[in-house]
């Protein structure tokens, strides 16, 4: 018996078309909004400090979005270039020595510098892998980002029994900017093939956007001749 396809009413087709359009337009609109919000925020911080003769708005008498952000990128790049030569290193060392003498400022400066050096270090393996750990109880699994091997006093105290400990970051859903830093035995982590970007999408979407996974077929073992 041939099944008769169910006819969709006009209201149903309009609803489906609207939802399809929403799926297409909403990410684009949110991306544009976030981009211009960030540009406006950067301009509001940098533009007041730009000398008038270097400000394009002074000559064209119109507001040019992104001027402050562009100036900030150029300024930071120039500072980085100067910081690589002998004179620049001397100036940076002098500035750091001044900050080291300030009780509260030196603590903030050391912490921020250490975090940025760790995140931006070219050879760093921070947050380049994802994994699963049993949390909050056996049989329940949580997604974590691998920070690296435990170091310093933590490694000396936790690795005493010979079990290698790994630092992992477990963020909540749907805001991955907060979370818990935990030290887990390496043998207790199930490593994943997905990238941190794919893991972040899975986390933010609450499990709705899962990356494609293609299992690696085992290499056949040929019998001895």
What's the arrangement of secondary structure elements?
Blueprint lengths: L9 H37 L9 H5 L6 H16 L3 H15 L2 H18 L8 E6 L6 E9 L2 H7 L6 E6 L9 E6 L4 E3 L3 H9 L21
Antiparallel strand pairs: 1-2, 1-5, 2-3, 3-4
Helix pairs in contact: 1-3
List the keywords:
five-stranded antiparallel β-sheet, 7 helices, 225 residues, single chain, transmembrane, alpha+beta
Short description:
The protein is of the alpha+beta class and 225 residues long. The chain is built from seven helices and five strands; from the N terminus they run αααααββαβββα.
Summarize the structure in words:
The protein is built from 7 helices and 5 strands. With 225 residues, it is α+β, with helices and mostly antiparallel strands. It has a domain of 76 residues. Strands 4-3-2-1-5 form a 5-stranded antiparallel sheet, with helices on one face. The chain starts with 9 loop residues before the first helix and ends in a 21-residue tail after the last helix. This is DUF502 domain-containing protein. InterPro entries: COV1-like. Keywords: Membrane, Transmembrane, Transmembrane helix.
- The rounded distance between the terminal residues' Cα atoms is 57 Å
- Major β-sheet, in short? 5 strands, antiparallel
The total of helices stands at 7
The strand count comes to: 5
Order of helices and strands: HHHHHEEHEEEH
Helix content bin: 40-55%
Structural class assignment: alpha+beta
Widest sheet: strand ordering: 4-3-2-1-5
The average pLDDT score comes to: 80
Beta-strand percent range: 5-15%
Shape annotation: flat
Determine Rg (CA atoms, Å): 26 Å
Low-confidence stretches: none
């Amino acid at each position: 018996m041939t099944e008769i396809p169910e006819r969709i009413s006009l209201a149903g087709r309009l609803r489906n078309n609207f939802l399809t359009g929403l799926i297409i337009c909403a990410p684009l609109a949110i991306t544009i909004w976030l981009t211009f919000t960030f540009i406006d925020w950067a301009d509001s911080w940098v533009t007041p400090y730009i000398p008038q003769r270097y400000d394009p708005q002074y000559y064209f008498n119109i507001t040019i979005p992104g001027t402050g952000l562009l100036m900030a990128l150029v300024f930071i790049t120039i500072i980085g270039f100067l910081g690589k030569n002998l004179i620049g290193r001397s100036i940076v060392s002098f500035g750091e020595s001044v900050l080291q003498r300030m009780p509260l400022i030196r603590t903030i400066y050391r912490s921020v510098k250490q975090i940025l050096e760790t995140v931006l270090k070219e050879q760093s393996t921070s947050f380049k892998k994802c994994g699963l750990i049993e949390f909050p109880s056996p049989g329940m699994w949580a997604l974590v980002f691998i920070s690296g091997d435990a170091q310093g006093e933590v490694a000396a105290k936790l690795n005493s029994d010979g079990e290698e400990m790994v630092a992992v970051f477990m963020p909540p859903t749907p805001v991955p900017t907060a979370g818990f830093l935990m030290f887990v035995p390496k043998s207790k982590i199930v490593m994943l093939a997905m990238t941190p970007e794919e893991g972040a999408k899975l986390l933010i979407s609450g499990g709705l956007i899962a990356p494609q996974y293609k299992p690696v077929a085992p290499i056949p073992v040929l019998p001895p001749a």
